[in-house]
Structure formats: structure tokens, C-alpha cells
Amino acid sequence: AMLVVFEAARRACPSLAVLGLIFLAYNFFGKYIPGPLGHTGFSMKRVLSHMVWGSQGIFGVGIGVSATYIFLFVLFGSFLKYSGFSKFINDLSLTLVGRSPGGPAKVAVLASALLGMINGSAIANVATTGTITIPLMKKTGYRKEFAAAVEAVASTGGQFAPPIMGAVGFVMAEFLGISYSKVMIAACIPAFLYYMGLLLAVHFEAKRLGLKGLAPENIPNAVEVLKNQGHLVIPLVVLIGMIVLGYTPLYAAVFSIFATILASWLRKETRMSFKDIVDAAVGGPRGAVSVGVSCVVIGVIIGTVSLTGLGLTIGYLILEVVGENQLYLGGLMVMIMSIILGMGVPGVAAYVIVVAVAIPVLIEIGAVPIAAHMFCLIYACLSNITPPVAMSSYVAAGIADSNQTKTSLLAVKLGLTGFILPFFFLGNPVLLIGVTDATVLTTVQATLTACLGVVALASGLQGMLFCRCGWAERAVLLVVAFLSIDPNMVTDVIGIGLFAGVFIYQRIKVKKGGEEAPAVKAQ
């Protein structure tokens, strides 16, 4: 069984196979490691018994969720793809933001977000939407590295964006022992802030370069798009409606698959043929295989952590370094660990790996359980754009014919909101709706403060607000962004005051004919 598992992993996800082998070897050779990371050693019989027959081995939570939730939702995404849903999303995004400055990049952000939350694979999302959006961005005037980075960052965020969260939400609900609807609602504000930061970064970059939107003749009519393709959103309405009404996600997913076929038949142009249905039924399981194999190998990692006590050991080591009640310092160390463990691994698999090691540490130093899970999920997903193993960035760079390293570094810059965002709700879980007993007013206040921080961060990094920002203005904006992390009223007031100062100064500079962005027209 173990040989079959690792052979399958070698074919589906080589990097994860290597990681699994390292953990497996630790069971046998850990006794030779001196210090706290060592253990007393285990026999072959004990290790194999734990890995194969135990509840925390290869037949643990990961493969159970993969064989049910993940499989069905990957299949659902496959049916949506063959129904023409991807084209509908692209056309709809063009009608919404195509004419604004840097319109094609904003189209990439919206389209990738909407598709990514369904298919759950950042790499697959880049490969599908990127072939359309990246050439369009390059034609408009964006640098090829920037175009590739935008697509990579946008596709990555779909893995933690409601309503489906790329099936990761179902895994989180299983670990937490709560309903999926609670996880979905809690993820709303973090996902909104992530994409708000990316849209603002794209907008400010377009303003800085003087880029224009697409010409009106290249943008489809909104009424026609909704009239001819709007019915394709029915399956999503069915899915969300059934989950809200209390039906299980599995039940809702099956009904949504049939709803996809029926909805496509409402108009001749989108009607799924028998061949389309067969292709969708074959393509879905093919897409689910790599995730399923990853979840099986993760069982080896989780089994090692539970058998050897490695998770507790690492937790104690981190606690010794950061001390008690050092939430942000402990969060920083967990962030680094989550990104490293998630490199080169599918989003769901990366999250499950991190859960076994990092979650207990965060809870021990004072994090709310669901905030700790969401924290680790986001960083595990962001490993897709983090060098040196930034798979999403590499795929996007291949499409754009850009330098992989430059694309990855630029992706980190564009996605910096995502790297800072989890600290917002780690110490202030009010941003996770339904987690605390906070009033509506408190939640709105925390959200507005976080939005201010996101605007300041995007503006400071891109060096643009109403006109170009000097180094002093950029420094002040970045200070505002970090002040927004702390939920304290004093830091909020200081941050608002500093941002207001930059805001007024920029407006005065514009009125006096300050340095404007160069007038560069789209090709």
C-alpha cells in the first residue's frame, strides 16, 4: 500500500512525494537526531500499522474529504467549464471593468477570482484564464512580468474565496467540527480585502503608467451578455441556496451538477451536447486525481507528526522562542513555516499539512481556532506565488514569456496584502464574521479600518494615489497600513490622521499641477 501511494505521488506531485519520504524516514532515523527533535525510534511493524490501519495515516481525514467533498466539487467545476461558464465570467468582467484604467488587468482579477473559488486549483486557473487575460494585458501596455504576476496572484486567492473556497472550506469545517456555512461566512471579509488590495494595486499601476482601458468596440454589451449567458449562473444560485437552507454540501453539489446541464439547455448557444457531458464527467475525475493522491501522501506526514509527537515538539520550540502571549511574533514564525510546507503542493494538500503542525501553536499563544485555521490556509495557498517554488507564477510566466524570478517577486509585491492580511484577523477575529459576539458596529469599524490599511498599502507600494507619491508619502502610507493591523482605537485614530494628511497633500499637489502619470495610450 505504501509503495503504491508513493508511486502515485511521484507521478502526480513529485515534490510532495519527496516531502512524504522525508517524514517517513524520520520515523526510523529520528532516534539518531540529538536534542528535542529526536525520538526513541519505532519498529517497521509499528510505523506501517499506524500509517495504514490508524485513523491518522493514509486513510485519515484528508483522503476522506478528498473522496467526497473535493471530488464532487472538482467535478462540478468541470461541468461549469464545459457549459461555457468561463466565457460568461470573462465577458461579464469585461463589461464591469474593461473601460476603466488598466481594464484588462482588472478583468483578469475578477475572472480568476470567480473561477478560482470553484475549481480550487491556482495552477489550473492560471492555465485556463491566463491564456486569455495575459495577452490582453500585454497588448494594453502592461509589462509581461506584471501581466503574469497579476494572473498568478488573482488565481491563488480563489482558493480561500467563498462560496466554495476551492473545497478547502469543507476540509476546514471537518477539522473544526462546525458547519461549512460558518466557515464560508467567516472567509468573506478576508477574501474581499485580498481582492480589494489586488484591484487597487492594478489600478494604481495603471494610473502610474498612464494606461487607458479597452476601447468600447472591444467590450461586449452588458445587457446582451446577461441575456445570452446569464442563465449559466443558475447552478451557483442552486448550490448556495441549498447550503443556506441547511442541505449538506454533498447533496447540494450533486443537484448543482444536474442544474448545470439543465441550465445550459435553456439556450441553444450554450447547450451541452452528449460529448460535452462525457468530457466533463471524465475531465473532473482527472483533475481530482492529483489532489486525491496528495491527500493520501499527506496522511503519511500527519501520521508521522502524530506518531512521533513532532507537532508538539515544534510547537514547544516555537513557544520557547516567542514566549507566551506573543501572538504576532508566533504568527510570523507560523507564516514562514506554512509557506515553506506549502511550496509546490496543491492548496488543499498544503493546508492539511500545515494544520498538523502549526494550528496547535497558534491556539496555544492565544488565537481563536477558526482564526488560526484561516491564517494557515491563506499562507499555505500563498506559497503558490512565493519563490523559490512559486508554481502559479511559473505557469503564468510561461504563458507571458516572462522571466520566472522577476514574475515571482512581482507577484509577492502585488499579493503583499494577502501576506499581511491574516495578521489583521489573528489579533482581531472580529473580521471573521460570526466568530465572535461582536456587534454590527464593531464589525463595520474593524472592516473599514482594514480597508483603509489595504488602500494605504497598495498606494504606498505602487507609489500612486491621485498623483505620484514621493518617498516620504509612501513611507507614511506604509506606516498607516501597519497601524491598521492593531485593533486598538489609538492606532486606528493615528492611522486615519496620517492617511488624511497624505490625502489632502495629494489633492493640493494635483490642483497645483503636481507630477502626473505619463500619458501612455493603449495599443
Summary, kept brief:
The protein has 523 residues and is mainly alpha-helical.
Question: How is this structure best described in words?
Answer:
- The protein has 523 residues and is mainly alpha-helical.
- The protein is 73% helix and 0% strand.
- It has helices at residues 2-12, 14-29, 44-53, 61-82, 85-97, 103-119, 122-140, 144-157, 168-176, 180-186, 188-209, 222-229, 234-244, 249-264, 274-308, 310-322, 327-342, 347-364, 369-382, 391-400, 404-414, 416-426, 440-462, 471-483, 489-511.
- Helix 6 (103-119) runs antiparallel to helix 7 (122-140), helix 15 packs parallel to helix 18 (347-364) and helix 23 (440-462) packs antiparallel against helix 24.
- It is globular and about 75 Å long.
- The chain starts with a helix and ends in a 12-residue tail after the last helix.
Features:
single chain; 523 residues; mainly alpha; 73% helix; 0% strand; globular; disordered C terminus
Terminal CA distance: 57 Å
The rounded Rg comes to 23 Å
Share in β-strands: under 5%
- Name the quaternary structure: single chain
The number of strands is: 0
Order of helices and strands: HHHHHHHHHHHHHHHHHHHHHHHHH
Mean pLDDT across residues: 82
Structural class: mainly alpha
Helical content stands at over 70%
Largest sheet: none
Overall geometry = globular
Q: Which regions have little confidence, pLDDT < 50, spanning 5+ residues? A: 516-523
Number of helices: 25
